[in-house]
Every structure is written in structure tokens, then in C-alpha cells.
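Q: Here's a chain of 176 amino acids. Please give me its 3D structure as C-alpha cells.
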Amino acid sequence: MKFNLTDEELDAIHDIRGDVEGKSSVIDEIVDSIIQPYCKDLDKYVGFIKDCLKDGENPPTTEELDDFCLNLSTYIYFAGGMTEHLGIRDDIAKAVYKEIYHTARANQDKGTVADKDSIAELASQEEYIVSSSYTRAYKMMKSKVENAQELLASVKKVLSRRIQEMELSRIGGSGK
């Protein structure tokens, strides 16, 4: 691999990167519009927890931690179910893409295999983008649910530690 690039080569690389970023932003918007209805409540609540944790001088109370556990569990439950609905849409989008691709390929009487593949890929390009968007949305939603589960586990650990500390101080205070 060549690492001493000319200015022209660097410019070409930056142009390609700019093109990728521009096209990616369209896909990002599509993916965000797909997952937003599914995870807006979970995202909002995790943001609320994040805001509560910003104040290092006043850590969350035991009651707040208890509320975090109950509410996060509820949001994770619904988000997990919604993730499966996204999985269904992902499967359907893949099937639609394959159907258009194979139909376009089957309609080609002439040309090489590579020519037929290229024509079929061009004919099904929009379906491929939709399919890819649903795949990304499913993966992002699944990741959000998994991360929320990790957050819930962390909150439970802190809550458990607090309860143990309260028990120890209660036992220590009554022995005097």
C-alpha cells in the first residue's frame, strides 16, 4: 500500500470521502426516521437519567434509583418488542429487494452474467437502500435495547450497594 500520496491523490480521497459522507447522511436520515417512533421513549428516559447523573454534587437518591429500575425495565420491554417488529420489516424489505433483483435479472435475454447482474443491481438499487436501511435500523434498535439493559444492570448494582450500606449502618447504629 502506498502511503506517500500526492496532493492530487489526497484531493481525490477527500472528494470520495465527501461523497460518502453526503450519501451516508441520506441513509442516516432514513434510518433515524425508521427507529425514532420505536425508541423515542427509551431514548428520552435514558437522556433523563444521563441528566440526573450530570450533577455530581447531588447523586440520585435511592428512590430515584428505584424509579430508574422500574421505568427502564418497562421501556426495555416495549422497545424489545418493537425491535422484533423492526426485524419483520427488515425481512420484508430484503424479500422485496430480492424479488426486484431476480425479476430484473430474469428479464435479461442477452449479455454476460456480469452484465445481467449489473442491470439487476441497477434496477433494484432503491430496494437495496431500503433493505439496508431497515437492517441498520434493526441493528441500532437492538443495540439500544442491549445498552439500556446494561444501564439497568448498573443501576441495580448501585441500588443494591446502597441498600447494603443502609443495612450496615442500621445494624451498626443499633449496636451502640
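Q: Can you summarize the key feature?
A: The radius of gyration is 25 Å.
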